[in-house]
Design a protein that fits this description.
With 276 residues, the chain is an alpha/beta fold. It is built from 13 helices and eight strands. The strands form three sheets. The protein has a three-stranded parallel sheet. Strands 6-7-8 form a three-stranded parallel sheet. A two-stranded antiparallel sheet has the order 2-3. Strand 6, helix 9 and strand 7 form a beta-alpha-beta unit. The protein starts with 10 loop residues before the first helix and ends with a helix.
Length: 276
Amino acid sequence: GVFAPLTASTYGSGELLRAALDAGARSIVFGVGGSATTDGGAGMLSALGARFVTADGEPVAPGGGGLAELASADLSGLDPRLASVEFVLASDVDNPLTGPKGAPAVYGPQKGASPEDVEALDAALAHFAKVLEGAVGAKAAEFAASPGAGAAGGIGYGALLLGAGFRPGIEVMLDVLGFAPALERADLVITGEGSLDEQTLHGKAPAGVAAAARAAGKEVVAVCGRLALPPEVLGRAGIRRAYALTDLEPDVAACIADAGPILERTAERIARDFLS
């Protein structure tokens, strides 16, 4: 596909939520991540009945870039059925909406945003939150700074405005998978990710698994394609040791092509180090 960092919209997500309401849903787990959008959830809110207009009274253009022209916001037309739904925002990141750790700065470049686009999107989302204060009061600013607001280009912010309660996605999945009883029977916990790096520490699966295992007194090791965290940082996250495929095969392309055999060799190393 073609990246559209300034114009990509979350309108379709709002349509999905409306379809869930039409189907009679009373509990919605809204799992977000891996999006191509950075519009703060404005498109989603629009699909559910909110109105965002320019100084000329025209609807703002789709996408985060259009929010720079936002003059007023009206959430009074939101679908009333949302008030009676248990709504959970599940995300594997805890970033706020804006700032150095916000959605545009951290994830914008992955979606094709240039440095200039990132600056414009960050300013537009900050303006979005400021205008929303006039519609919903101080909670607009509170939600913007809340963990998860920056998830999926800020759609987390829109979900919080709809009354969703934030819950780390890994916690939701661990509950669904019955992780706690399985943990009781485990001698060693092995988790992993393609790249074990700074983003891992912000609510991603390995960090969540390690936290749960450490609370149960279990040792944790991680397997990854690439390792970008020093041992002391891993230790603070509850990971005893990390095994990178690039330790055995420095060529990343070869790691990807021969991941299976390299993982088998890595598993042998873990067994020798921890289970022999």
